[in-house]
Specification:
By secondary structure, this protein is mostly beta strands. Helix content is about 10%, strand content about 40%. It has a four-stranded mixed sheet with strand order 3-4-1-7. It comes from Parahaliea mediterranea.
Length: about 700
């Protein structure tokens, strides 16, 4: 039982004093593994984070030996796969016998991925031997050396191998190199490339040749390379023997005993002059100089002849293998040639050698000679003459000037590849080589563009006698259609082509030039005519001056109309808009009937005095010149061609659709560039 003092007293805490100075006051104890557990928890958290974000990647390596991987980043092996987070990682792959592979490992966000890698094997090490040794080793066309060859490095994979040795058949094989520094041995046994050929001769001791090279003497067995070979025997006093053999490697042949023939005698023949014909016992042998083979110990007759010389004969006997020479001077048989030359100062040459000037009396051997007569400013003349012994011959040669010769060489008429006829014209020989185009202001019907224009024509030219027909033009443009009017066709074969532009007409000329191998007159760019070459002699359109001269010049007179100077015509002379054409043209030449509503077949009407048809009618005609109105009182022009290019071109002549006095005059001028149903053309070309 407690005392009152004890019961009433307050209970108070007492201060703690440790028994050991510096000791901690009592409190809660810390477990000693606490930090280890915390580290493990953190590591586990990191591992779980890695596993949750990592992707499964299978890296397959194609190699014959185990491969090692070095990845530049954290990963976890997982069977044949690895776990690795998305990203780009450096990757190194190594395997014994292969080149190391350094690459990049790309890891995407896909859950499962695969990367296939192929390692390049190291070269293989090869040994080459052969029977026989010393053969050339060629791999893929590159020579490596002579066998035996040791430790030759070759890339792994397929190769083409050749082993070659003289006089042996080539040894060829495909070669598969294992690589990976593995050693391989190739042993090639080459087969002989020859065959043994046995032969003897009668008499013995003849030299055996193969391909012209001596190899043995008979009797013998010789090694002859495969293929076609020339085998021969040579022995003094005997004719050479030869045979072509088809030799198969490894297949021997026995030719037996060859009986040699006694050698021919050899005769070398020369003659003065050379080129004489030689016969031996009547058989032709050739011309001198010549080497003949004569049968030994037998008389044979030799005959040597040349036109203009006396024949040479000799009977000759040569021993076997004997050599002889003959130099024969042939005796000439002369004939007399009396040559008359004009002009007398002309030079005379015989066979290229000058013999004098003017008339000559020549004694020449009785064979063919070349006679040339020449003089400056004249065209040379060459003749071939064969004099006859005892007979005097006469030859007269008159030289022509270069101009006369040139004219004589020109054909007065030519035919084109499509059947057109062109006539040659030489205006310089005409009284109107210089004339005035156009018409006087006082002339009835004269138009403002017919300004008087003086011209001169000096160049010779060819001009088509008719207008170009549909049939001729369709050889250039097969689908061309000239059209029809009110059921009246313009498209029949022999009607003049119509509905052609100036460009089409000029392009036809160039096409025809190329067809005949002539230099085209017109220049073209991307199919368009852009100008012309005045020096070209290809086909072209006539110039306006040529057309006017061809249509109007009649002796010393310039015609006003094709029929003369009075109007209207009293009989059908050209195809115009006549009485039958009213429903087509709406206008006619009253009282005139030519028999055709639209165009007529070409040459249906008489030609003019120059032999040209339809210049004044049928269809009007494109000419070469760009359309201009000449200046009044201009200077005389020579062979004018007009400008190189322009917007419009001159049209000359009337047509089946025209009837007025103004239009039927030969000085009438029109222009355009597009196709019309009453405009065609004819062609021309310079003669030089």
């Amino acid at each position: 039982m407690n005392s009152p003092e004890t019961t009433d007293a307050a209970i108070t805490p007492a201060a703690f004093e440790p028994l050991t100075p510096g000791a901690r006051p009592p409190g809660r104890e810390r477990h000693p593994l606490r930090w280890v557990l915390l580290a493990c928890a953190a590591l586990f958290a990191l591992l779980m984070a890695f596993l949750l974000t990592a992707r499964s990647v299978l890296i397959s390596v194609e190699a014959q030996s185990p491969a090692s991987l070095e990845i530049g980043g954290p990963y976890l092996p997982f069977g044949e796969r690895i776990l690795i987070r998305p990203g780009q990682y450096a990757l190194t792959v190594t395997a014994e016998g292969y080149y190391p592979l350094e690459t990049t490992l790309p890891v995407s966000s896909e859950d499962s991925q695969e990367l296939l890698l192929k390692l390049e094997p190291l070269p293989g090490r090869l040994v080459f031997t052969s029977t026989p040794p010393g053969a050339r080793v060629v791999v893929d066309g590159e020579e490596l050396g002579l066998t035996p060859l040791e430790n030759i490095e070759l890339a792994a994979g397929p190769h083409q191998l050749q082993v070659l040795a003289e006089r042996h058949l080539p040894w060829e094989r495909p070669l598969e190199v294992t690589g990976r520094e593995q050693r391989q041995t190739v042993d090639a046994t080459l087969q002989p490339g020859w065959a043994e050929i046995g032969l003897a001769s009668e008499p013995a001791g003849a030299t055996i040749t193969v391909g012209g090279e001596a190899v043995a003497t008979t009797p013998a067995v010789v090694e002859v390379m495969r293929g076609e070979q020339q085998l021969g025997l040579e022995l003094a006093g005997f004719a050479p023997w030869s045979r072509t053999l088809d030799v198969a490697a490894g297949e021997p042949q026995d030719l037996g005993t060859i009986a040699l023939e006694p050698a021919s005698g050899i005769l070398s023949l020369r003659s003065e002059p050379t080129g004489a014909n030689v016969t031996l016992d009547g058989d032709y042998q050739g011309q001198t100089p010549l080497v003949l083979e004569l049968a030994p110990d037998r008389a044979q007759r030799i005959n040597i002849s040349r036109p203009g010389y006396r024949r040479y004969n000799e009977q000759l006997t040569l021993a076997a293998g004997e050599r002889a020479e003959r130099d024969i001077r042939l005796e000439a048989q002369l004939g007399e040639l009396r040559l008359s030359v004009s002009p007398q100062e002309a030079q005379v040459a015989v066979n290229g050698r000058v013999v004098g000037r003017g008339d000559q009396v020549l004694s020449l051997p009785a064979f063919e000679h070349s006679i040339e007569v020449s003089l400056e400013g004249y065209a040379p003349v060459r003749r071939r003459v064969t004099p006859r012994s005892g007979i005097e011959q006469r030859l007269a040669i008159a030289l022509q000037t270069q101009k006369e010769a040139k004219l004589a060489s020109l054909s007065p008429e030519l035919t084109t590849a499509v059947g057109q006829t062109l006539k040659l014209f030489i205006p310089a020989e005409s009284p109107l080589a210089e004339f005035t185009m156009g018409a006087s202001r006082r002339e009835s019907g004269r138009r403002a563009n017919e300004v008087l224009r003086p011209v001169a024509l000096k160049r010779m030219f060819y001009l088509q006698t008719t207008e170009v027909t549909n049939a001729q033009f369709r050889q250039f443009q097969p689908n061309h259609n000239s059209g029809q009017l009110e059921g009246n066709s313009l498209n029949r074969e022999h009607q003049p082509v119509a509905a052609v532009s100036w460009q089409q007409a000029a392009q036809f000329c160039n096409w025809l030039s190329r067809k005949e191998g002539l230099e085209p007159f017109y220049t073209q760019r991307e199919g368009i005519v852009t100008g012309f070459n005045p020096a070209a002699t290809g086909y072209r359109l006539p110039t306006e001056a040529e057309w006017a001269w061809a249509a109007r010049a009649d002796g010393e007179t310039l015609l006003k109309f094709p029929w003369g100077d009075t109007f209207p015509p009293t009989k059908p002379v050209e195809n115009y808009a006549d009485n039958t054409s009213a429903y087509v043209t709406g206008r006619i030449l009253s009282g005139y009937t030519d028999g055709y509503v639209v165009s007529a077949p070409v040459a249906s009407f008489a030609a003019n005095t120059k032999g040209l048809h339809d210049l004044g009618g049928n269809v009007a005609e494109w000419v070469n010149d760009v359309y201009t109105i000449p200046a009044a009182n201009g200077a005389r022009e020579t062979d004018p061609l007009g400008a190189q290019q322009g917007d419009n071109y001159v049209v000359r002549g009337a047509s089946w659709s025209l009837s007025k006095l103004s239009e039927l005059r030969l000085s009438y001028r029109d222009y355009g560039q597009a196709a019309r149903d009453d405009v065609g053309f004819r062609i021309a070309r310079y003669a030089e």
